[in-house]
Write a structure and sequence with these properties.
With about 110 residues, this protein is an alpha/beta fold. Helices cover about 35% and strands about 10% of the residues. The protein contains 3 helices and 4 strands; from the N terminus they run E-E-E-H-E-H-H. Strands 2-4-1-3 form a 4-stranded parallel sheet, with helices on one face. It is globular and about 40 Å long.
């Protein structure tokens, strides 16, 4: 999942993103404030997300951006309803395979 401020046609808004579309725990790629992600990295990603921003400056610090995105993702997992039990079980199974720990990589 790419998170970038350089908009493309396939970019989705974080607030409206359906986390159920993801088939396994995501790997997040965060773009730099000025240049964003390279075209090569963007081509590797199944989804590109943006965080809604208001005003003339469309840039967030990568640490702030990563916190917002990971909070949104973990909130989705925490707030899973009975409709999402299968999704949560899929992530729980993956966690067991990883000896009970998740690995987050910030690039």
């Amino acid at each position: 999942v790419a998170i970038d401020n350089n908009l493309s046609k396939k970019t989705e808004n974080l607030n409206n993103f359906n986390w159920n579309k993801i088939e396994k725990p995501p790997l997040f790629f965060f773009g730099e404030e000025g240049t964003g992600l390279t075209p090569g990295v963007l081509n590797l990603c199944d989804y590109t997300l943006e965080i809604t921003q208001y005003g003339s400056i469309r840039s967030l610090n990568v640490g702030t951006c990563s916190g917002i995105v990971m909070y949104a993702y973990t909130s989705f997992l925490e707030n899973s309803t009975n409709q999402n039990i299968e999704e949560r079980a899929k992530y729980d199974a993956f966690e067991s395979e990883q000896n009970g720990s998740y690995q987050l990589t910030l690039l």
